[in-house]
Design brief:
heterodimer, A: mainly alpha, three-stranded antiparallel sheet, two-stranded antiparallel sheet, 26 helices, B: about 375 residues, alpha+beta, four-stranded antiparallel sheet, 6 helices, about 30% helix
Chain lengths: ~650, ~375
């Protein structure tokens, strides 16, 4: 038993290390090298990204998922992996086999009124209360959706009803979908290679006829008609495409001049030359339609080699981001955090009764938190490298970074107080923040380019990082205080060990973390003011986000002064720290929900409900924390003499072996 | 009694209460912005001694909550008093002193900024120069004598003096100005409409003009545009009614007693001893998008008295600091992107937050280290 408890932590670590090894190991491509296709670079939203990211972020905006499940498995059967189309495979279908893509349940419609207004009730499929529809379901309604959306978009975004927001979102999804269809070849093309050949063949005569017509000379009608039939298709594609997949023709002059397939083919009227990239993509298109894996792979390899010459940087970026998309480091960190939290919780609950088990669980949790930290950090650094930015650039990355900060603090606390508290806190906070980040990522691309005002790595690296660490610290203090209240009221563990008083240790931790939070929030807030002074000429403008940061500073100062002045003791401190969670959550999310001010970069239309739920839960905990001491299990046994009926409760726990 | 007052003002309890009040004030003031807009909420909550509300059912304004000046002021007193009372010598407390000193500097600096800083805007078209900036909210009635081709004589009357029925006299002017009707925010039209009234003026506009008054603007990117109907009364008794408005593109020209005058209701001007000549304005976007990557203005600073003439580029996050003023890239002409709007800030106390930040951060780190050392040694002992 003793030996088992000793090696248990290592077993856990080995288990998750193995999992991570398989996650990180490069995977073999299928018979048709679709993954290699997904790595090809394209320009969208001002940045070079792999086609896989184009597909993923489109799918996120259309369906709020990164991949497209092909079968519906009830949510509670988490062990079953439904068959799914990976983002790139979906993109290939949309571009090359649109008739198949149109039958996929790719469109999420959220709002019940919108579903009934569009009379979609019977159609589509349902999963976990959400309904998904195919493009074929929506096809007859497209006109109406666009009309409604254009009416709704005339209203200021903050004033829109949820229904109007959803109509706009749906119209945007349909628009993206239609444009994706035209992104690699003109929609409806069955043989792109043939189309290109025809285009090239009719081009000289067609252009000559066009010139002749314009100058009033004798035009060759037949040549002109033939040419125009193709050119019109191409022009439609030029106007309706989404990513720009054709690399710049003269990279040495302008590396940003990417163009879409249609536009680059129209440019061929002038240069009489079809860009090589289009030729490669045409071969891929034809091979994909004909299910000719050998030809598809040969075209993919051909294009890859062609890119290696002048576009190795862009191709490298595509490969790196593709890998980042596939390994999902933050998802795996989340899983490890949850396990670690459960183990650390077990360690805390057994601390008074079963010391050997408690220590073994504590160690397991600590190792796993350390592993999660490594995975989390790797993800963070990978993202920073891809973006070329400091860690926090938007709401999504702030969630990731707050989680990272809490994990660092948790590891430090665990090193000092070896009871499992630090790990439990890090596990819980890491899990929740990454969950929040996951939900924030459902809006689409999380690596968008920065608006001009925010385009400064210096201030992003100082002000934003420091303020975000301040958020982390207040959350850490709040979570520790929550642990104090929950453990104190419902379990005897705060005072279970004679040699070590968990309750007073927690108090010391919370106090120290609040000091730390004060330092970071204050410095971060003032740095923000200085940034504002540098960019807008005012140090302080009472902007909502600034006020939010100020609230945290004031609250931390209030807690410290209340403590020093003797206005609060242990439990008072804990309740104040829990309310700190409310204030920090307001500052982080609430201010963005107001939809005003210079910082409204992360305006959120939903999420208000969650904020209210969170506030409610924290207030409930404060009420719990205000219960008189004799209702706290942890403090009952110390009341001399213990009343007999109260005693068995915690004496009943199994004695340590 | 005095000791009791001293104990009250120096107590930590008071500090906690004030911090709590500040917390509520900031939160309330943030929420109020949704309705009132940033500027009005700022004035009501953060640039005031008290927050007022109407007594239910009456027009009576009563203070219901302390404003930021009140809370901040008491906090300053509390800080000083507490330091007198609790000050203890020794390096262990050095950090505490520094932190509070920094906070005092920060509060005082912000108060000074509120009082002394002046914000204005310079709108310059490409290829032209200006030697003045314009206020964003304050207007003036400017009467310029252009008789002498070489130099203009300007009489500027602040819009605050334009009260209905007021008569304004200036020795330099060949007439008195009687204010018939002034609207702080207004709208003009060339046809009758709902709420519009015909202006009985003798302007040289050529078409009749209707006007109406509008409520004070609260939205962030909009501003009040005033209009005024004045009557010019010459010594011999002849009168002339003239409409002046921020909406009118050109000043009104008059000839009175052989003098050529122009009249204009315009944003207050702040003249500088130098010109800024806009060479080029650029609005860079990320490729294939409308997302702004950078805004920048290439300007020449031309200073006739010293002969200075050099070129600088003002861009986002890189303002020009010159002559104690700071010039920020603020906006541009949306229509053709060939004109820039620079924000000009004259704030004598702009450096205080920089010092305050350094002092407080240093004090906090100091205190943090003191605690850390104490904590580490105590753990070692146990």
């Amino acid at each position: 038993m003793k030996r088992f408890l000793k090696i248990l932590p290592w077993l856990f670590l080995a288990l998750f290390l193995t999992e991570m090894f398989f996650v990180l190991k490069p995977k073999a491509d299928g018979e048709m090298r679709t993954a290699e296709f997904g790595r090809f670079p394209a320009l969208l939203e001002g940045r070079v990204q792999p086609l896989d990211s184009v597909a993923r972020n489109s799918l996120l905006q259309i369906r709020s998922t990164g991949d497209l499940p092909l079968e519906m498995v009830p949510g509670w059967q988490f062990w079953r992996h439904p068959k799914k189309l990976r983002s790139t495979e979906w993109l290939l279908e949309v571009c090359f086999k649109p008739e198949v893509a149109d039958t996929r349940n790719a469109f999420l419609i959220h709002h019940p009124d919108l579903i009934s207004e569009l009379k979609l009730g019977e159609k589509g499929i349902e999963k976990s209360g959400l309904r998904y529809y195919t493009y074929n379901d929506l096809r007859p309604l497209v006109e109406e959706i666009f009309t409604q959306a254009s009416t709704a978009s005339q209203i200021e975004s903050a004033q829109r009803t949820p229904y109007q927001q959803q109509v706009i979102k749906l119209a945007n999804a349909i628009n993206i979908y239609q444009r994706l269809k035209n992104s690699i070849q003109p929609e409806g093309t069955t043989n792109f290679v043939q189309l290109l050949a025809d285009y090239q063949a009719t081009l000289p005569a067609g252009v000559a006829a066009m010139r002749a017509q314009r100058t009033g000379g004798e035009a060759d009608r037949e040549a002109l008609d033939k040419f125009m039939a193709i050119a019109q298709k191409i022009e439609t594609a030029a106007n309706r495409s989404y990513p720009r997949i054709v690399p710049p023709p003269h990279p040495e002059q302008d590396r940003d001049a990417w163009s879409n397939v249609g536009a680059s083919l129209l440019a061929a009227i002038r240069d009489q030359q079809i860009p090589p990239a289009v030729t490669f993509y045409a071969r891929m298109a034809k091979a994909y339609v004909e299910n000719d894996a050998a030809e598809f792979n040969s075209a993919v390899v051909g294009y890859k080699n062609w890119l290696a010459k002048d576009f190795s940087k862009e191709a490298g970026k595509g490969r790196a981001e593709f890998y980042f998309n596939r390994v999902k480091l933050f998802l795996h960190a989340t899983i490890i955090y949850v396990f670690a939290f459960v183990l650390a919780g077990g360690a805390l609950l057994t601390i008074g009764s079963w010391l050997a088990v408690s220590e073994s669980l504590r160690r397991s949790a600590f190792y796993l938190i350390a592993l999660a930290f490594v995975v989390h950090t790797a993800g963070l650094i990978f993202r920073m490298a891809l973006e070329g930015r400091p860690p926090v650039t938007n709401l999504y990355s702030s969630a990731i970074f707050i989680g990272w900060g809490t994990c660092v603090l948790g590891l430090i606390l665990e090193r000092i107080y070896k009871v499992g508290l630090g790990s439990a806190m890090a596990g819980l906070a890491g899990f929740i923040t990454l969950l929040i980040a996951h939900n924030l990522a459902l809006g689409g691309d999380t690596m968008r380019m920065m608006q001009a005002v925010l385009d400064t790595n210096f201030w992003l690296a100082t002000h934003v990082v420091v303020v975000t660490l301040g958020y982390s610290a207040t959350f850490v203090a709040g979570v520790l205080a929550m642990a104090y209240v929950i453990l104190g009221v419902f379990t005897p563990v705060l005072t279970a060990r004679k040699d070590f008083n968990l309750g007073s240790a927690l108090t010391k931790m919370v106090y120290a973390i609040i000091c730390f939070a004060t330092l970071f929030s204050f410095t971060g807030t003032v740095l923000g003011g200085i940034w504002a002074d540098q960019s807008w000429g005012r140090f302080w403008g009472w902007d909502p986000k600034e006020n939010g940061a100020l609230l945290i500073v004031i609250w931390c100062a209030l807690i410290l002064h209340a403590r020093w002045g003797g206005l609060v003791k242990e439990r008072g401190l804990m309740n104040l720290a829990i309310f700190g969670n409310v204030i920090t959550a307001w500052s982080w999310f609430g201010t963005n929900m107001l939809g005003i001010g210079l910082h409204a970069y992360g305006f959120m239309d939903s999420g208000f409900k969650w904020l209210m739920l969170f506030v409610g839960s924290q207030v409930a905990l404060i009420v719990l924390g205000s219960l008189p001491l004799n209702m706290w299990k942890s403090f009952q046994s110390h009341e001399p003499p213990p009343t007999p009926p109260a005693a068995p409760d915690h004496k009943a726990a199994p004695a340590s072996a | 009694m005095l000791t009791r007052l001293y104990y009250f003002f120096s107590s930590v309890k008071l500090a906690v209460v004030l911090l709590a009040l500040g917390l509520i004030l900031v939160f309330w003031g943030t929420l109020a912005q949704v309705k009132l807009g940033l500027y009005q909420a700022q004035d009501q909550f953060f640039r005031s001694w008290f927050i007022y509300a109407n007594l239910p059912g009456t027009e009576l304004r009563v203070p219901i909550f302390p404003g930021a000046y009140f809370v901040g002021g008491l906090l300053l007193i509390n800080l000083f008093a507490a330091h007198l009372r609790y000050y203890r010598k020794g390096w262990k407390y050095f950090g505490i002193v520094l932190i509070h000193l920094g906070v005092v500097l920060l509060l005082a600096g912000q108060f000074a900024t509120d009082v002394f800083s002046v914000e204005s805007y310079m709108r310059i078209r490409e290829g032209t120069a200006k030697n003045y900036s314009e206020s964003n909210g304050r207007w003036e009635l400017a009467i310029v004598d252009t008789t002498d081709a070489d130099s203009d004589k300007v009489v500027a009357i602040p819009a605050a003096l334009l009260k209905d029925g007021a008569t304004l006299e200036e020795p330099e002017l060949p007439f008195k100005v009687r204010v018939l009707e002034y609207h702080l925010n207004s709208m003009l039209a060339t046809k009758a409409g709902d709420g519009f009234k015909l202006v009985e003026a003798e302007n040289a506009v050529g078409v009749p003009i209707w006007w109406r008054s509008l409520p004070k603007e609260t939205r962030m990117n909009f501003r009040d545009i005033p209009s005024v109907l004045v009557e010019l009364v010459q010594p011999q008794g002849t009168t002339q009614k003239i409409l002046l408005s921020g909406h009118l593109a050109r000043p009104q020209t008059l000839t009175v007693a052989g003098r050529h005058l122009t009249l204009d209701l315009r944003p207050e001007r702040y003249y500088k001893p130098f010109y800024l000549h806009l060479e080029d304005f650029r609005f860079d976007r990320y490729p294939g998008t409308e997302i702004a990557k950078n805004y920048s203005s290439r300007v020449r600073i031309i200073r006739p008295d010293t002969g200075e003439d050099r070129e600088v580029t003002i861009r986002m996050n890189e303002p020009l600091r010159y002559e104690g003023k700071t010039f920020f890239q603020s906006n541009f002409d949306q229509e053709d992107e060939k004109g820039t709007v620079l924000q000009v800030v004259d704030n004598p106390s702009w450096l205080t937050p920089y010092f305050a930040c350094v002092i407080v951060a240093f004090g906090m780190s100091w205190q943090f280290l003191v605690h850390l050392v104490r904590f580490a040694t105590s753990r070692k002992k146990s």
